[in-house]
Design goal:
heterodimer, A: mainly alpha, 2 domains, 22 helices, B: 502 residues, two-stranded antiparallel sheet, 21 helices, 2 strands
Chain lengths: 518, 502
């Protein structure tokens, strides 16, 4: 037990907020805001590294827990903690924050104070979502994460900032209305917002099943829009297209997927099992639909948006296979997707900054001028399409195996088609951007290759992709940790968050029924 | 037995405010023309602050009534006194810096604001229907005149006349209702009515009285379908006045409504609850739908205030103390946010309101980051995002409603707040957008000390209500408790008003 352990999560939450206030107070001169933001995010990242260093694998329940009463009536408390599920997501968020700052280093020139302080508030909100164990606290951070993002989209949007910002905001805000009703209903029935208590209550069968179905659906709906799951993805392409690169990079997918695992599958296992077939079908449709749309995009941000839809849907498939293996694969794939997407965003942002164009056809043959950029982009692309030895492979492999064995062969085969398609659109993007004839006008401008600062960010990301591909056990161990003797209520708590304690027993106790039901 | 003496300490804040108003008028009339009339605003501000402290001091009094059981002091009245005095203070500070240097009638302006505050405070502490009526008239008459203050524009007097005519009409309903209550129960003292109403000879009379009184109150809080005056009045009246108009009288009227339904007619719950349910749904839906289409910022905020009246009425679906305390908390959160946003708008738009359309606010964050940031902060609070007062306001009202079993109302309410996000955030995002190149560059507005204090006060209160609502919540709960357990209607109360009746 380290002396820092009880307060480390609070430090992680407060550090970006303190940085944001500092940025807002100090003058916007000679790059002060960006340096403060960089230092803050690096310090926060260092804090997040404390978690895996002192995380005890194999211990059940939450670690680094802190529970302080905040409001007496209704009983909301400041209750934070991490387990194998959220541990690495916190670290990933910590890692992407300095990457985001460095991405914006030259791209953001106006109103840097506003940008960096909102960016840092966004970090706090995201950390908050991952570590909150009190439903109201979680809801607070969940909503808070919308505001800086929406304002920044409005401020720095490429063409139609306010419109895209409003679309993004409403798409996420309106579904959270039923979510709040559901949370309040749970509170009215159980008298608690505490995650662990609620988990016991929902499993105990004391709550009316009919109402619980709607409550679970409200939770799922809010998360599914945030991920997004097909057909709720209307906001995605516009947001990717308009959002500042740094923000699109840090928010992509993680929040919704984590919430699904923790608060839908984790809180309502029975309801999740009932609705899993629908989500599996939607996820497979999303994989193929996103891939097909990505094939025909003319704008590279839109292409990446639909590629993200495809890859995130695959993770949804892993989650709703409802096997512990699938869950670890899903978490691993979230991590990998975060790293790979960050590299791709960074490189495309660098291209846009140099050529001021996002239309793919205006590029061509720039590999000759930007050899380093081309190399890194190819590596990131290969990681994204899941080449073995790179990070994307491991997660995809685990998800496909668990779907194949645990859910249904048909769905697994259908989803695997998405991998082939992803190779098609990503490699064709590489080909159209970096190779081919270089006769088009914007690409004929003389530009410099990646600078030291960009390389300093990209190289660790690429190394990380390699390490994640070569020795996944470094991560998978703490994500699933070693199984412990099954407990009495193994089925009741057979959900993410408790993977650690019941890992193996769950595989047996959770019937892989989606195949049997249809 | 001591002879009945008027217990002046029961109305001390009102006395302080009245003296302040009179002093302002006297100084204004007797001081030489060279005397800087702006100082009168500071006199008003100081007087309001003292009134605020005296109402806090009233907490040390034993709960009870004074002046022959016509006014009460309790946690309930203190809560609303503090709220109203706070709003009035912000409005005065705002007017100090935004009213033009050359304008006439500085003295009258501040005196009227203070007299209005007297009426509003008295509305919340009166436990006698006729005193409530008189207090309502005191507050209304001042606001009618204040609405016409920008008289060179034409729209301002029009707004005032519209407000006056419709307002008088509504007050007539209230008075008629009071008369019917008197007819049915033979008294206008609220505790007595609560005692006698269940056994009244003619229940139909009581029902008619309740309906008529509700109409009068609904008009004052601008709940649909009695809201038609709101957008025109808000658009025409000077913005500092609207900051006052959209908050303080409404808060006072809600206090009266709480008294009427929870203290006077608790037994008729099955009757007024559905009525309030309907009005709540109507208000929020009508307000939000209409606000979506507005181009003028003040009109948009006017419709938004109609919607907020609807959210507040949702709290009345909660039973007893839960509903009362939620309504009181919402009133506080709404008042802090709304007075703040009108303060921002009045600084940005200026007295002459050259910038009144949503598109005029484009690039505000780039021109004046502070004002732009505050505007966005208040809009976020109105939307109801966590860590702002608006969120906990909505949270408590809707929790109360869910506890009262009105799940449908809550779902409608939350979908409405999603709808409302569309227009609040459209304004926020337009303000955050880069200024367009062809936009005329307007000089950044100056923020004086008084306006700075007003903005700071509103922002800090909004933030505190969102981050640490505990203390306010305790206050609303004890307020709810005093309202829920009124003193027993004893005939001794009439003979010995100074004696605590509990």
């Amino acid at each position: 037990m380290n002396s820092l352990d009880p307060s480390i999560l609070s430090l992680i939450l407060l550090a970006p907020l303190a940085g944001a206030i500092l940025v807002a107070l100090l003058p916007d001169r000679s790059g002060i805001p960006k340096w403060i933001a960089l230092i803050t995010t690096l310090v926060t990242f260092a804090f997040t590294l404390h978690l895996p260093a002192h995380f005890i694998s194999g211990q059940s329940g939450f670690q680094f827990e802190r529970n302080i009463p905040w409001i007496a009536e209704p009983a909301i408390s400041y209750h934070v903690g991490v387990d194998g599920l959220s541990l690495w997501l916190v670290v990933l968020t910590g890692l992407l924050a300095p990457v985001g700052v460095l991405t914006s280093w030259n791209a953001i020139e106006k109103r840097r104070k506003v940008f960096y302080s909102l960016f840092l508030v966004q970090q706090t909100a995201m950390f908050g979502v991952f570590v909150s164990l009190d439903l109201m606290l979680y809801y607070g951070f969940w909503e808070l994460s919308l505001v800086p993002m929406a304002i920044l989209i409005a401020m720095y949007g490429r063409k139609e900032g306010p419109k895209a910002a409003l679309k993004f905001f409403l798409f996420t805000f309106i579904p959270s209305a039923p979510l709040l009703v559901a949370i309040l209903w749970l509170y009215a029935r159980t008298g608690t917002f505490n995650f662990a208590d609620l988990q016991l209550q929902t499993a105990s069968g004391m709550l009316p099943a009919g109402a619980l179905f709607w409550v679970a659906l409200a939770f799922l709906f809010a998360f599914a829009v945030k991920v997004p799951v097909f057909p709720l993805h209307g906001w995605l392409a516009d947001t990717y297209n308009e959002a500042p690169v740094a923000l699109a990079m840090v928010v992509a997918g993680k929040l919704g997927l984590y919430s699904m695992l923790r608060f839908h599958v984790g809180l309502f296992p029975a309801q999740a099992r009932a609705i899993a077939p629908l989500l599996i079908a939607l996820a497979v449709i999303g994989v193929l639909y996103g891939a097909c749309l990505a094939l025909v995009q003319r704008d590279f941000w839109r292409l990446i948006a639909y590629a993200a839809l495809s890859h995130l849907s695959l993770i949804v498939l892993g989650i709703y296979g409802l096997t512990p293996t699938g869950w670890s694969g899903a978490v691993y794939q979230i991590l990998s997707h975060g790293v790979v997407d960050a590299a791709i965003f960074l490189l495309l942002g660098a291209l846009e900054f140099r050529y001021a164009s996002t239309v793919i056809s205006s590029y061509g043959g720039i590999a000759a001028k930007l050899p380093r950029a081309a190399t890194y982009f190819v590596i990131a692309t290969l990681a994204m399409i899941g080449l073995p030895m790179l990070s994307g492979f491991v997660g995809e492999f685990i998800i496909f195996t668990s779907t194949f064995t645990g859910v249904s062969r048909g769905w697994a085969v259908a989803a695997a088609l998405g991998v082939i398609l992803s190779a098609a659109y990503m490699l064709s993007l590489v080909q159209r951007l970096f190779y081919g004839p270089q006769d088009t006008s914007p690409a004929s401008q003389p530009v410099s290759d990646l600078r030291f600062g960009e390389l300093a960010v990209l190289t660790p990301l690429v190394i990380l992709m390699l390490v994640m591909g070569l020795s996944p056990s470094l991560w998978l161990n703490s994500i699933q940790t070693q199984p412990q003797p099954p407990q009495q209520n193994a089925v009741a708590v057979g959900a993410p968050g408790f993977v650690s304690e019941t890992g193996e027993s769950n595989a047996a106790s959770l019937p892989p029924d989606p195949e049997a039901q249809p | 037995m001591t002879p009945p003496v008027p217990s002046i300490e029961r109305i001390l804040p009102e006395v302080v405010l009245t003296l302040t108003g009179v002093a302002i008028m006297l100084i204004d009339a007797s001081a030489p023309p060279s005397f800087p009339r702006r100082l009168l605003g500071w006199v008003a501000a100081v007087g309001t602050t003292i009134a605020l402290w005296t109402s806090l001091w009233q907490l040390s009094l034993p709960e009870g009534t004074g002046f022959s059981s016509t006014v009460e002091t309790s946690a309930f009245t203190v809560f609303f006194h503090v709220l109203i005095c706070g709003i009035v203070l912000v409005a005065i500070l705002l007017a100090l810096d935004t009213l033009p240097e050359k304008s006439h009638h500085f003295g009258e302006f501040f005196a009227l604001v203070v007299f209005g505050a007297v009426g509003m405070c008295l509305m919340t502490s009166a436990v006698e229907l006729l005193v409530i009526f008189i207090a309502l008239e005191i507050s209304s008459l001042s606001t009618y005149i204040l609405a016409a203050y920008r008289k060179h524009t034409g729209r301002s007097p029009e707004a005032s006349i519209k407000y006056f005519l419709l307002g008088s009409f509504a007050t007539a309903f209230l008075l008629y209702g009071i008369a019917l209550v008197f007819g049915a129960t033979g008294t206008t003292q609220i505790y007595e009515i609560a005692y006698r109403a269940p056994s009244a000879q003619n229940p139909a009379l009581i029902l008619a009285a309740l309906a008529l009184m509700l109409v009068g109150i609904f008009f004052k809080v601008s709940a649909a379908p009695f809201h038609v005056w709101t957008p025109d009045v808000y658009e025409g009246a000077p913005t500092p006045v609207v900051a006052l108009l959209s908050t303080a009288p409404k808060v006072a009227a809600f206090a009266v409504l709480l008294r009427i339904v929870y203290e006077m007619f608790p037994a008729l719950h099955s009757l007024w609850a559905p009525l309030l349910w309907i009005v709540s749904v109507l208000s929020m839906t009508v307000g939000n739908l209409a606000a979506l289409r507005q181009k003028n910022v003040k009109r948009m905020l006017a419709y938004s205030s109609i919607a907020h009246a609807g959210y507040l009425l949702a709290a009345f679906a909660g039973t007893g103390e839960l509903g009362i305390s939620a309504a009181a908390f919402y009133a506080a959160a709404y008042a802090a946010t709304n007075v703040g946003i009108f303060a921002v708008v009045s600084v940005i738009a200026g007295y002459d309101e050259n910038l009144s359309l949503i598109d005029d606010f484009r690039g505000l964050v780039y021109r004046t980051p502070l004002l732009g940031g505050l505007l966005i902060f208040f809009l976020v609070s109105l939307t109801g995002i966590p860590f702002t007062g608006g969120f906990f306001g909505k949270f408590y009202t809707f929790s109360a409603a869910i506890n009262g079993g009105a799940v449908a109302l809550v779902i409608i309410g939350l979908l409405n707040s999603g709808l409302a996000a569309a227009y609040y955030l459209r304004l926020a995002f337009v303000a955050a957008q880069r200024p367009s190149p062809d936009q005329p560059s307007t000089p950044a507005p100056q923020i004086g000390a008084a306006v700075g204090a007003a903005l700071g006060l509103a922002a800090v209160v909004t933030l505190i209500l969102g981050v640490a609502p505990g203390a306010t919540l305790d206050a609303t709960q004890s307020a709810a408790h005093t309202l829920q357990a009124p003193p027993a209607p004893a005939t001794t109360a009439a003979t010995d008003p100074t004696l605590p009746t509990r």
